[in-house]
Amino acid sequence: MLKSLLILITLLLPALAIADETSQRPNIVLIMADDLGYGDLSCYGSKNCQTPHLDQLAARGMKFTDFHSSGAVCSPTRAGLLTGRYQQRAGIDGVVYADPKKNRHHGLQKNEITLGQCLLDAGYRTAMFGKWHLGYQRQYNPTFRGFQQFVGYVSGNVDYVAHLDQTGVFDWWHGAELNREEQGYSTHLITEHAVKFIRAQHEQPFFVYIAHEAVHYPYQGPDDPAMRKAGGGEIKSAKREDIANAYREMNTEMDKGIGKVVAVLEELDLTDNTLIFFLSDNGANNKGSNGALRGFKGSVWEGGHRVPAIACWPGKISPGTVCDQTTISIDVMPTILELTRVRVPQGHQLDGVSLAGLLTAQKQLLSRKIYWDYRGNSAVRQGPWKLVLNQNRKSPVELFNLSEDLSESKNLAEQQPERVDSLRTAFEVWKKDVTQSATPQPEK
């Protein structure tokens, strides 16, 4: 009998070791706002919006002042975030539109390895709530891209109340099936499902991706009626005229929801073993605030892609830290993989770098170049220097020193021709590389 017991213990030891290793891995809460500008949080200087819960996260963790989305609009940044690759390489370099006359048939292809898939394969429970925008067809549903649970919408935005996309098509999913029964304000529903998922996790580490609709249009506060009609069109009588107030209400509800997520982590004693990372998918449009930055959503000036970002992990990230190092959203996946001790499949190329040492020990990152390219407008950044191409018709070549000119108002291209040529050459090499290796999209 003793011999049998020893054999049993020997067999169980590897499994127990794996279980113990898994239990020590941090939980991950990744939160993305939609169209939230660099100046839209009170901890970033907003006067219109008060965001006490996000302010508290920043006070308890790290606030980034030079963080960027990899894209200047929705779909590309989301593709880059979830693959750790420039979205051009991942095959989604522009918006995936709801209009079937455009590219509604495009999506995140199966050969693209996602953060959700990597963590799921490593024993994490995974879920996504909110905005997908990486493919409308069922085959692109998040439940086939590494997320065990999904509640939300697959388009670029929905009516916050009626859950209709811009073409008037109903777009609210539970898993890979439409759910016409669930009613409510989208921001509240996203929060409720995220909290429910976290509350259900006790034995395994989890990864939850909370992709808020706020503060993207339609501009609807929590007490507003539906604005869109099934089949297309708007209910004009329901349209908000005071957009600034609607914007503030939308931001407030998102902030409250993030507060509820933090509260359930504290209630379940999960705070110290949970990394919360918050960011926006691009800069604000002209209804929001990008602070002193030039440009808006869709541009490769700073206002299009320098965004608020906050990381909080009590005991691991020093409270009240301000990070001024240049970072980008494609860094999030390699960061999380390192912190969770999960490897990307061999031979798969990531373009971002891990920020693990920066977060936990404020280590300096190695010098590198980062790139933006959207609709023929391009930019490349190295250190404080930024080359902008074709964004300005009057001056198609612009060079800025961001350490002295954050508002990109002093074009130094004529004074620094060699630097312009060097950065332009680097961009052309990068562009050729990501184009040649891009994951193809299917023909219509």
CATH class division of the largest domain? Alpha Beta
Percent range of helical residues:
25-40%
Task: Give the topology string: H per helix, E per strand.
Answer: HEHEEHHEEEEHEHEHEEEHHEEEEH
Q: What is the CATH topology classification name of the largest domain?
A: Alkaline Phosphatase, subunit A
Please state the overall shape, judged from the principal axes of the Cα atoms: globular
Which CATH architecture of the largest domain is right? 3-Layer(aba) Sandwich
Strand order of the largest sheet: 7-6-5-4-8-1-9-10-2-11
Average residue-wise pLDDT: 94
Structural class, from secondary structure content?
alpha/beta
User: Into which percentage range does the β-strand content fall?
Assistant: 15-25%
Q: What is the fourth-level CATH superfamily of the largest domain?
A: Alkaline Phosphatase, subunit A
* Counted beta strands: 16
Number of H/I helices? 10
Uncertain regions spanning at least 5 consecutive residues: 12-20
Distance between the termini: 67 Å
Count of separate structural domains: 2
**Rg, nearest Å:** 22 Å
Instruction: Characterize the main sheet.
Output: 10 strands, mixed
Your description of this structure?
Strand 14 and strand 15 form a beta hairpin. By secondary structure, this protein is an alpha/beta fold. Strands 7-6-5-4-8-1-9-10-2-11 form a ten-stranded mixed sheet, with helices on both faces. It is globular. The model is unreliable at 12-20 (pLDDT under 50). It folds into two domains: 25-368, Alkaline Phosphatase, subunit A (3-Layer(aba) Sandwich); 372-436, Arylsulfatase, C-terminal domain. It has helices at 2-24, 52-60, 74-83, 115-121, 186-199, 243-267, 302-305, 332-339, 356-361, 417-436, and strands at residues 27-33, 62-64, 67-68, 125-131, 149-153, 173-174, 177-178, 206-211, 274-280, 309-312, 321-323, 327-328, 369-374, 377-382, 385-389, 397-401. Pfam families: Sulfatase (PF00884). It comes from Gimesia chilikensis. Residues 1-19 form the signal peptide.
